[in-house]
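User: Round two. Same drill as before: sequence, then structure, for each protein.

Assistant: Same drill it is. First protein:
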Amino acid sequence: MLRKPACIAAGSGLFSFAVTALLLFSFLLNNSVAIAHDVFTSSPRTVAPIKVSLQLKWLHQFQFAGYYAAISQGYYQDAGLEVSLLEPGDTTDPLHDVLEGRADFAVTGPDLLLARAHGHQVVALAVIFQHSPQVLLVRKDSGITSLQDLVGRRVMMEQPSAEIKAYFEAEKLPIEQLEVVAHAFSPEAFIKGEVDAISAYISDETFVLNEAGMEYLVFDPKAGGIDFYGDLLFTSQAQIDAAPEKVKAFVEASLRGWKYAMKHPDEIIDLILSKYSQRHSRAHLKYEAEQMQHLIIPEIVEIGYMNPGRWQHIADTFSSQGMIAADFKLDGFIYDRDQKPDYRKLFLSAVVIILVAVVIFIAASFYLRHIRRRHQEMLDKIKADERYNNLLSRYQHLIEKAPFPILITALADGKLLYHNPAAATFFGIRSDSDNPMLMTDFYANVGERQLFLFKIKSEGHVKDYELQIRNADGKGIWASVNVAAVTFDNQSALFASLIDVTERVQARAELKELSDRLRLITDNMRDVIWLFDLQSQKLLYISPSVYSMRGYTPEEVMAQALDEGLPTKARETFVAWQNSLHNKTDDEITSDYSLLRIDQPHRDGSMIPTEVTARLIFDANGTAVRVVGVSRDIRERIRAENERHRLEGKLQQLKKTESL
């Protein structure tokens, strides 16, 4: 009979109690969470919505499109919230408005990290702009071509502008050497030339300057390694402690609104113009929406995502420039949307007892080792994810700024899944089009794609393949294409980069045509063309007609040294000609020097009399380096001349006879 181990038999009663208590605790916790969930998801007809205020960073424009969408689409209402959007006034400070209770939530920038480091209990809830839109614009006619040229110039900056200041510090530009002017929140002074530079949003003020025909330069902090987050949503720790479910519901509804807004920009523009503000034109709002696509990058990074490693990089940048303490910790600054609120503080003692009981009975060495191993794997995965996200951010920036088209298409049907700005310009791709584009639309020969698929299947990639395609104007061009198989959005796809090589292909075709013509001429002429190198004293080229003249193939003649290819007298004639011309310029060489009589050996042992026309080739320094020449078989000419001399002699003899 099998016996139960003593340790299990002795503790089975306590173990049963622990399991029972654990089940009871789970039942109470689940019901409590369900009750809290109902408060924030119930229909507004049965539960009055909770009023919430959101302090905007600036006046109504597309910069806050996600919040407008969350209101119009009913996402806040579904979450049991009634949200009011507050425009800033002359004395508005989003940080203190939230800390002092005048607003529940607010929109700000990465400067929030400085507030946290200085003791303010604020929490970053979600990042909307993965890359900051803040740049420094400089008048092109100011003569400023680098940051160092700003010394002593008038620069209009908003405060605190920590990102711009960090940029100056990174480029070793003391801000004390600038004449900083308070920001008027309008580019008018910049246009009039009252200031030389202005801090601005690349998605906003640049439209006004473009419309005014203003020429300017853009100094982007990212060029100096300052790649901060842009607009983000935040609240106070007190708000989270007092109403954690309200905070979570607001954040999730807001992010739903942002996802909708970025997919339907034209609809949100109509909403802004009809309900919120007509301060900007439709064209201005559309320009802002297009620029924000490159800053939010919703196709690559989930809206609202915050990378702790990137926040640490921002903190390290501030620390290295003396803005915050070196030992500052991010603990509590980054909001965890998945954290579970603690509703069972009254049952804390019971939880501790249950956990102790469970640990006692299940913490066997095997499971302990397993837990440790899993824990280490999780830590490794977190670190790997952080490295991956950092690299992803860098690579995404490189791809977006690449001067050549980069595309990702579905392997199955060729549908366009992603394109960078260069590809949009090259192929005329419109971001607001609802019809998915197919890469096959741009093929000059659609059958080429089957070749790609075959190569991908057999080799995994296609490298430097020259393909004829059509650009935005419908013009056929040649492109060098590199394609690799990837997985994108959980589907098999092709990652492709293209470089325009039309001129190279045309030049190569013209060169081949010219080469074919020259080869046709040299292969069919009777005279022998040759090229001789003076340094190596060897032939570099000789035309095929040498075989008809001397009975040797071109390869055989080129393999012969000078003393093998020419008899002694002919060799001495050629060397003497070289010596006589070696130090002369091209203008000093006349036909008297370039016409030689040289006998060349035939394979059958006979000598072939030839007339050689030769000319020196000079390098850039005026030194003779090669000889190009034409050898002509003059046997027929010599026979004709001999026959002429014989007949002339015979004629003279007849004349003498007649005179007698």
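Second protein:
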Amino acid sequence: MDPLSLFGRKDKWFLGGGRGAVYAPPFPRWLLAPGFWDECYYADIRIDRLFTALVYVGGKPVRLSSYLKGWRPDRLTIMHVAGKMVMREIRCVTEDQAWVSEFELVTDVGPVDLVFWSAQSAAEVPPPCSRITGCERLTRDGRAEGFVWDFEVRFPSEMSEERLATDAIETRAGGPSINSLRGGLCIAIGSDEAPLGVATVRSEFADTPPWVEASPAYELFREGRLEAMSSELGAHQFHMLSHCRLSDRKTVQFGAAAGEDRESATNRLRDALSSRAQDRSAAAWKEYFAQVPHFECSDPYLTHAYWNRWFGLRLSSVDRALSAYPHPCIFEGIGAFRNLISYSGWCHARETAWMRNPEMAQGVFRSFAHAQLEDGSFPGHTYSIRAKRDFYHGNWGDAIRLLCSIHPDESFGEEACSSLARYADFLARERDPDSEGLINVHDQNETGQEYSSRYAFVAQADDDWAELRMQGVDATTYAWRLSAALAELAKDGEIRAKNEMREERYRASIEKSLWDGVDAFRDRDPRTGTLSPNLNAVGFYPLAYEPFATENEAAVHRHLLNEGEFWTPYPVATAPRNDPTYSPSAIWRGTKRNCPWNGRVWPMVNSHMVETLAASPNLDVRKSAGELLMRWVRMMCFADDPTRPNCFEHYNPETGAPSAYRGVDDYMHSWLVDLILRHACGVDPGAPGFEGPRLDCGLEWLTVSNLRVAGQEVEREWRA
């Protein structure tokens, strides 16, 4: 099976080259307009109005009637129609950090003129902003080729007042406050054939749609030629135009490429246009899929979900695109999530640990180690131009332990342990100052779980981003797992001994101080020792790693698998149905929220819940783990169609509807590949022969191949 063959659909448009260049507008305004007029990103830098194509038939401009014919990860096909003219456009984003459109006439209507147009801001305006600061015409062998320009991005260096507790991270840790990327990004645009004419025009600013009437070409293109106007930079907007002619005997490719300087941007553009971009894009995706375990099974939902996750990981991959990202890494998602985020980074390390080459998984961790602050913490967000901000708790310990078991590497292990030991010291010093073995959460943001009743018992204004103090079940569980990993992996005797003590202290405190004595783990108020009266899904996290006492199983049966609480029609709800703030519709105190955790189903939580149920010694509970995995992947499909998988931020626990109102699909904020390979397929990197228990997922058959563990080739084939 060719994984690319699974992806054909007509309701998707995201494109990425796997190295930092992407086209993935959540709500595109100009999806059907030729070229890339909606926002594109180079790493975390947004670029608007890269280029479009204005179409002239018989020397006259035409308005196009266009439709999306098909999408795969390697290409997007749009058909453009104007009268008898039918033109095919194939868009690609390539490994060359380039955005390319290929145009081909389907009907013979004689030559068609294409005027390619890019419109960039040139204004000196207060940040945040981006603008063109210098431009030159590209020539090759004495002939016009296109343009290359310098792209400046500016962002305020001042901290916002929105989240006082988390914004203080930059001042506390002494990190730099970068407010401008000047001269660090250049864009080149051009075609694969010498243009018949080029022009530059400066103008006052307008919110320009990709229409002939809104462009300078409306006045400059006459009698089949583009007037050779040449404006210098100035005013508010700068327009670059290039005229090519399309006939029924050839195609025309036009593209844009990003680089750290004019030379690299130009070379990348020329490389991208040196052959058919769609062929190179397809080859790159096939090569990528050849580097991951090949999984198929009898259930189309699980098969499509598996490969769709690998698509999402490459879509958001960044490979040393800017100085802030010196190692391969993965961003959390599209749009506002186009940056290095520590809440999801450890999930990416878990997923990509299963690739045949450990470079990406190791690069993910090294990216956070590179950004690590002086106090030992990992910043929540690392940008290329904005100041680092926020802090998130996460399970780095088990992620690195898994990576080191699949790809043993003594040098990397020592490197990782050195960085993680500093992080563990930060948690012990700053978040457990009284050595209670319980980790303090300082605001609702750093758990990644805002708008939740779990904070109400420690803060009256629990949803206004104010500072608070709460000893969190999730935060303490993660610290426990971090110390357990260091106790196992560290070669340094002092690091190992220190974390052996911490491991036992955290574990004991979870059992003694966070267990309510009846049937639940709960968050704790450090001032009074009072446990939260409100149940939350994080209360099941500790059971993913150890069963603790027998009575802890009551938490699973009485609450997690209770249809009146967490086991909703589309499980698992983040807050139980009997919580007074429970809302399946993302409503928190009368307002529909972007990221509410008062009942919505979050894939991040479901990853934890599959682990929790799969770890149970109770066979009936383990069967529920397989059931949850299958119900979860089925929920993540449009219209119950396995060929249309998705992964949004959160879902309605009653209907399974995704948070489509946010537009953020392919949100890499959980782990799924790892669950499928370890639990559905029974591959355990730490077990003899790598044989682990396999969950009952109701499958008739499954196969796994192209899997390398500890230097050995591993295959699985199972039939009911």
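The CA atoms of residues 568 and 653 lie 6 Å apart.

User: Perfect.
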